[in-house]
Amino acid sequence: MRANHSGQSPIHAGSAASYAVGFVLSLVLTAIAFGLVMTGALSHGALVFVILACAVAQIVVQLRYFLHLDRSEAMYWNLMSLLFTFFIIFLFVGGSIWIMYSMHDRM
Questions:
Q1: pLDDT for 35-74, tens place per residue?
Q2: Which domain covers residue 31, as residue numbers?
Q3: 89 shares a domain with 59
Q4: Which positions ≥6 away from 26 have C-beta within 8 Å?
Q5: Predicted TM-score of the model (pTM)
Q6: CA 21 to CA 11: how far, in whole Å?
Q7: Is 88 in the same domain as 59?
Q8: How many Cα atoms within 13 Å fall on the side-chain side of residue 60?
Q9: What is the CA 52 to chain-centroid distance, rounded?
Q10: How far is 99 from 107, CA to CA, in rounded Å?
């Protein structure tokens, strides 16, 4: 068994158990979204809300169990880099949509 110097529990240390938990959680979240869409059990508005909630939970699972990002001091700069990346993507996508919408109104 490898030593755990980060103060995390062994299930979050990048072990096979950690990857298995992340994989199972990803499958469950995907199955929930797929099942709700295929059965049509919810109204359109509720379905969109549940799918977005599953998507956010899926992002958290991916970041936590596969990229091993957490709120510890050791991960501070990795987390800041990720947040900066999200900000830049938001600027590019938002700016592109804004420009396309503006051009659509002018044509």
A1: 999 998 899 999 999 999 999 999 999 988 988 887 778 8
A2: 1-68
A3: no
A4: 58, 61, 62
A5: 0.68
A6: 8
A7: no
A8: 9
A9: 10
A10: 12
